Amino acid sequence: MTVTSESKPSPAWKTTMGSEQFEFMKKVLAAPSPIGFEAAMTYGVIKPEFESFMPEGWAVHQFKGNAGLVFDSHPGRDDLVSVMIVGHADKIRMQVRKIDSDGKVWINTDSFLPTTLIGHEVQLFCQDPNNTGKYKVIQNCTVEALGAIHFSTPGQRSGDQGIKPESIYLELHTHGDDRKAQVEALGIRVGDPILLDRPIKRGVSPDTFYGAYLDNGLGCFSVTEIARMLANEGLDNVRVLYTVATHEEIGRFGSTQLVGELKPDVLIATDVNHDYEAAPGIGARKMNPLKMGDGFTIGRGSVTSEYLVSVFEAVCREHEIPYQLDFSGRDMGTDGMAAALAGVDSAAISIGYPIRNMHTGSESAHTGDLLGSIHAITELLRHFNQLNDGKGVSRDDLKNSHVRLDQL
């Protein structure tokens, strides 16, 4: 039967994400993996999922100092060009900083804007005082600052004055005598991590979703989905290092360690980006008008390989995958910097998904942007596998493809 262009199925990035795939994405994003405790996502969700589909010959790299994981499609094949695709599992978190005599648990706000936290339900993770070395979760507590509007200053009521980070505390509803002792009896200690309790849900507009920690469970989800698509294709000319890193939110320290150890030839960071077009109150900043729903983003500038940019664009044009160009100056702000920070010679790039309300409990995104990026990276790897008359991309291709502005 001849298949006409009219009868071809719509590509994934133009269709609604199926419920099974959405539920897996929800599971990834729900994993309690604050900075330094990423194993809930890497070992608890990602590793079992990879083990359900990855071929027997793949290997898993584990590490002593962090809970990052690398799934290696061709272990030991140092003759092949290696491509590391990275998402980061760590979530920005709040931390216990002081337990007061009245039972208030004062916390830091890390990379959250304090005013976005007020009233949110959270989960606090601490050691079980009755089971040394084991952890437990305390739920049904909220983040507070003022207690009530009646106790606020005139400036706070008018909006002229904000809320300071040192004003943020947890409400645990303690009462009676010895409230500090009540809190400590729960096992709560200084440094314990706290996460927003906001699982993702589908949004009002078609193909949208919202909730906490899209940054960057989405990158970990995309790395897994790329591997799932390619696992049985036998890309024998490219070594792919599917990577879920840690500690990105405090300096890209996890990916820097992994890159330093495995030394990939190509580094592709997958992470969220901003929907600048819809961001309120920033018109005067003249930001690049990226839009949620208009395609994933390809980063330029900083230490990005312009060769990779051009190849990505060519792949997207060939397969009609929508994308948007973005730029950065000194620092990409993603794991795409890991090779430069580790002193490793890799051609690097950062791929993103424009989201709204980053670092809040209501981050929102479009499934089409995410699925488009997954297919674009998949097609890039297929392209690399077919180069040089089917022999695959070579290191000389990377070395000899630098743009020459003196040859215009």
From TrEMBL:
A single Gene Ontology MF term assigned here is:
aminopeptidase activity
Query: What is the recorded name of this protein?
Result: Peptidase M42
Please give the InterPro entries that the UniProt record associates with this protein: Peptidase_M42, Peptidase_M42_aminopept, Peptidase_M42_dom2
The protein's UniProt keywords, in alphabetical order, are: Aminopeptidase, Hydrolase, Metal-binding, Protease
| Family that this chain belongs to | Belongs to the peptidase M42 family.
Q: What GO terms in the biological process aspect are recorded for it? A: proteolysis
